[in-house]
Write a structure and sequence with these properties.
Blueprint: E1 23-34, H1 37-45, H2 53-66, H3 68-71, E2 82-90, E3 93-104, H4 109-127, E4 135-145, E5 152-153
Antiparallel strand pairs: 1-3, 1-4, 2-3, 4-5
Helix pairs in contact: 2-4
């Protein structure tokens, strides 16, 4: 297996996608912030002193998806044409799912993963004064479509 982000001498490089045709592509990632039952209750009641945790996490995730190439030096600057970030409180904490869409020459997997990661970081930032034991877990790609490799779905997520 050859690694596309390495040149013949083993140095990092950005893959040249100039000759590829734009296609519709999408990627979905998920993750969670685990927290105590007391914090789950506070989140459900909307009593976090810093404000609406879920709304801030959604907006932060959307903004992060659009700025992925600034954070990942080998990621391409692409048109991010659609981003949804779903943030829900469940019995274990906060579940986060992000879907990113484009019509471009390369996929949006990293944008979806970045959206989930930054949304999770914002949850932690807003609740750390109430529960320092919160933990970001299970950040993963769950599905992608488009491009040369077509459809892919992580089996254990069942989505």
């Amino acid at each position: 297996m050859s690694l596309t982000h390495l040149d013949a001498r083993g140095h990092a490089r950005m893959v040249d996608v100039t000759e590829k045709s734009p296609t519709v592509r999408a990627a979905t990632a998920a993750g969670r912030v685990r927290c105590s039952p007391a914090l789950v209750a506070t989140l459900r009641e909307g009593d976090v002193p810093k404000g609406d945790v879920l709304a801030v996490a959604r907006v932060a995730g959307i903004a992060a998806a659009k700025r992925t190439p600034e954070l990942l030096p080998l990621a391409h600057v692409i048109g991010v044409h659609g981003v949804t970030v779903d943030v829900e409180v469940d019995d274990d904490g906060v579940a986060i799912t992000a879907t990113v869409r484009t019509a471009d020459r390369t996929g949006v997997e990293m944008e979806a993963l970045t959206a989930v990661s930054v949304a999770a970081l914002n949850v932690v930032d807003m609740v750390k004064g109430l529960d320092r034991s919160v933990t970001i877990t299970d950040v993963r790609l769950v599905a992608k479509s488009g491009g040369r490799s077509g459809q892919w779905r992580r089996e254990e997520d069942g989505r």
